[in-house]
Sequence to fold (108 residues):
Amino acid sequence: MQSIAKTVFGVLALSLCLTLVLAVTAPAGEAVLDAPPKSGPVDFETASEIALKLFENGGQITEMDMDFDLENGKIEYAFNIESDGFPFQVKIDAATGRVIKFERGGQK
Fold:
């Protein structure tokens, strides 16, 4: 019985460690910039609100799309946003609401 308890405790401890690691890291080249307002899937409207909150001086969504990332097997909301005369690309994980890409492109 004591052996089973140790095994269960070990599995729970390992699960907690993996959850913490996954919560604070992102795949190479991607940044996790914002925690979602709630846990679980987010809709397009909520994803756009998360994306626009990244811009202190406000931003204008110029293009939006939903993508399926074949490499990661995730659905992402993609936004092109203009702020202060600069174009930005923002991607939000549809399953969690986390910002997985925030990148400035082009010249002013």
Q: What stands out?
A: The chain is about 30% helix and 30% strand. Residues 64 and 100 are 15 Å apart (CA to CA).
